[in-house]
């Protein structure tokens, strides 16, 4: 039986890419095609695709390959440490047989150590498994919550959040509610709103936090604010679910980027954690990720482990091996690990430098606006604060393409094009 599903008409990222390709201006810049799709309209599903199916269902897919890092020439980048690890994996002439349900044996606990720290008080009571990158980890965590969370089957995510979060959790039949996070007026964190929402949620609620480099705003709580958030969560017995997709990529320092996760553990929380190695190792298409849950003791960890396997086995049996072998080789070899850390810092520093340059150039042109948010935000994305009509004008008059909400992918900025970008923004915004 074929389902009457209307085909994709055109994605928003696709529109930007097409318009960008058709533009003959040699100075054109694409800062939008790498972004997630807006959650409106990319697909149309008829109101009742099949009897008993959801009415007016709307899919909210994120385009694959979103948010990828580019080097200063605008090209994809394969880290030399990854090339070296891959060479070793190939030289070892390993077989291609299945990994176990929880993946390449050397990988999950090494990934956990990267997140929780080598001397974490949680070591020994972390149930960890390899997953199909960060998305798979979130999906697994969602399914675990659906089955085993004792309270309401609901998760609270920030406003805004990565476009895929809502879809992932809803697909696991969790209700998704949003808490206040971003303040449009200050282009910064709505800390008071966030605290109020944490306090007014029922005891034992599940809260999703971006561990660092909040996507899409680039706005993170400060360490002091994280401490306060952790204390409120303790008082309210909330269950924190951390999504860590950018460890090391945010500040250039993996330990610093893990501050929130480690602070929560120091404070005695049991947490859920999703990790992705897509950005920090540039392993996007290899789909290397990990999911972990901190348990009460070794006995509880055994039970959690067993339940994770029960969820994974019928879902995808076991994860792909190549990317995890590469990641495990890097994580478990001190020399290669040090090299990798320097390379992650190189990527983070390039992003930070482009932010600085953009701000300096805007100020240099005489702009009287406050552009401090460009440099205070971190990670791959920046909210410029440009209004939809201003974005349209920047695109039309200067061939700079990005989404209408004013969000740019900083990794699309290079030493060569930053001048043109600043000029375009300045001419439109002043
Ligand atoms: N979480 C956030 C906040 C992200 O931005 C991403 C990717 O863009 C992911 C999770 C998952 O990415 P992947 O499934 O490629 O690891």
From TrEMBL:
Which PROSITE patterns does the UniProt record give? AA_TRANSFER_CLASS_1
Q: Does the keyword Transferase apply?
A: yes
Q: Which GO terms describe its cellular component?
A: mitochondrion
* Residues of the Aminotransferase class I/classII large domain: 65-425
Q: What class of enzyme is it?
A: transferase
Q: How does it assemble?
A: Homodimer.
Q: Which cofactor does it need?
A: pyridoxal 5'-phosphate
Question: Which processes are annotated in GO (biological process)?
Answer: L-aspartate catabolic process
This enzyme catalyses: L-aspartate + 2-oxoglutarate = oxaloacetate + L-glutamate
Which GO molecular-function terms appear in the entry?
L-aspartate:2-oxoglutarate aminotransferase activity; pyridoxal phosphate binding
What keywords are annotated for this sequence in UniProt? Aminotransferase, Pyridoxal phosphate, Transferase
Q: What else is known?
A: In eukaryotes there are cytoplasmic, mitochondrial and chloroplastic isozymes.
* Name of the protein in question: Aspartate aminotransferase
């Amino acid at each position: 039986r074929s389902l009457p599903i209307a085909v994709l008409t055109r994605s928003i990222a696709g529109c930007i890419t097409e318009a960008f390709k058709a533009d003959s201006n040699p100075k054109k810049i694409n800062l939008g095609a790498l972004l997630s799709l807006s959650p409106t309209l990319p697909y149309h599903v008829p109101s009742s695709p099949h009897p008993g199916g959801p009415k007016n269902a709307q899919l909210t897919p994120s385009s694959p390959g979103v948010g990828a890092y580019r080097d200063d020439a605008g090209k994809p980048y394969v880290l030399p440490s990854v090339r070296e690890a891959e060479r070793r994996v190939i030289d070892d002439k390993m077989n291609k047989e299945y990994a176990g349900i929880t993946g390449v044996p050397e990988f999950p606990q090494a990934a956990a150590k990267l997140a929780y720290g080598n001397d974490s008080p949680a070591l020994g009571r972390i149930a960890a498994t390899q997953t199909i990158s960060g998305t798979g980890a979130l999906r697994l965590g969602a399914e675990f919550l659906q089955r085993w969370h004792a309270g309401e089957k609901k998760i609270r995510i920030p406003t805004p959040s990565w476009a895929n979060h809502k879809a992932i959790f809803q697909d696991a039949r969790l209700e998704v509610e949003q808490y206040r996070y971003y303040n449009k007026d200050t282009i910064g964190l709505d800390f008071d709103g966030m605290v109020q929402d944490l306090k007014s949620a029922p005891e034992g609620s599940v809260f999703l936090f971006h561990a660092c480099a909040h996507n899409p705003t680039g706005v993170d709580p400060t360490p002091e604010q994280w401490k306060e958030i952790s204390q409120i969560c303790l008082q309210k017995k909330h269950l924190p679910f951390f999504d860590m997709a950018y460890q090391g990529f945010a500040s250039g320092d993996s330990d610093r980027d893990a501050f929130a996760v480690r602070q929560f553990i120091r404070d005695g929380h049991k947490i859920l954690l999703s990790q992705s190695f897509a950005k920090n190792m540039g392993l996007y298409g290899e789909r290397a990720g990990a999911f972990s849950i901190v348990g009460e003791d070794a006995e509880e960890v055994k039970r959690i482990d067993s339940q994770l396997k029960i969820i994974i086995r019928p879902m995808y049996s076991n994860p792909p091996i190549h990317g995890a072998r590469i990641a495990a080789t890097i994580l478990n070899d001190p020399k290669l690990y040090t090299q990798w850390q320097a390379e992650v810092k190189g990527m983070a520093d390039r992003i930070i430098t482009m932010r600085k340059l953009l701000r300096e150039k805007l100020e240099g042109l005489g702009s009287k606006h406050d552009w401090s948010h460009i440099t205070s935000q971190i990670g791959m994305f920046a909210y410029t604060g440009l209004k939809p009509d201003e974005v349209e004008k920047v695109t039309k008059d200067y061939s700079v393409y990005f989404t209408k909400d004013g969000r740019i992918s900083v990794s699309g900025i290079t030493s060569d094009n930053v001048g043109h970008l600043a000029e375009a923004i300045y001419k439109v915004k002043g």
